[in-house]
Malonyl CoA-acyl carrier protein transacylase
Amino acid sequence: MGKIAFLFAGQGSQYPGMGKDLFEKINEVHDFFGVAEAIRPGTLSQMLAGTEAELKRTENTQPCLFLADIASALALASNGITPDAVAGFSLGEVVALAVSGVLSKENAFKLVCKRGALMQDAAEKEKGSMVAVLKMDKSELEEMCSEVGVFPVNYNCPGQIVVSGKDERIEKLKEKLSNKKVRFIQLSVGGPFHTPYMKEASEELKKEAEINMLYNINKSYIPLYSNMTAKPYPTDAEGIIQSFSEQISSSVNWEDTIKNMTKEGIDTFIECGPGKTLTGFVKRIVPQARIYNVCDIESLKAVVEELKNDA
């Protein structure tokens, strides 16, 4: 076995009750959830017993999903499995900041709370949505997006690009796609994320990190791959802050990220958090890769047993 990467799930994979048994049965998870609850009271009730509608609100989704993602990483670490590199999809990148040592878990949670609130505000000012477009030529889709006034933002894997924009323009895009008999999937998110409409949120997050100095920034001790560049994060504080703040209004270059990780010897990918979206992408990008998902005690035990047998 070569190197292991942890991948952290992004918005849209959330569901009520996620992470519940990890919280109940893994001491490290239980302890950190208590810290997070003290920072943002009510988070655990939203996460473990909230409604789908409540969880869909970005200001709630992001703190809750952060906890579900990091719970899996903490559970793996408690069983002796740690990553050689990390990457997170959109908000998952904030989890990766914590797991790679750039931020403490507490400060990363504070950051994601602020990030979610800023993006919620931006989404309420600019009503929008996102759709995943399947099996369409990249250049043709980018041209169609330009015509309609929407943005291709998440380059997920071969045959899947997510488009983001204002609701009325997304509807026009969907009409054009239907006319061409191109499949698309409406995503369970509440705004036009990773577009210029998030610029104000991006600038506010950067301002908080730079001026208010609320977060103690460190150099990562393992490679942390950036959504924007698909390459490892900068090592200086200014570059780190710029990377995690501008990511909000920039594209997610996930396909290139996974390819670059593979070039550096990563052959095993563990998706931490609810769902199997990211492992599905990896399977299409690097078919020969070993892929796993940890979201609960059952999946944790299966992954730990298999990896320890291979050691």
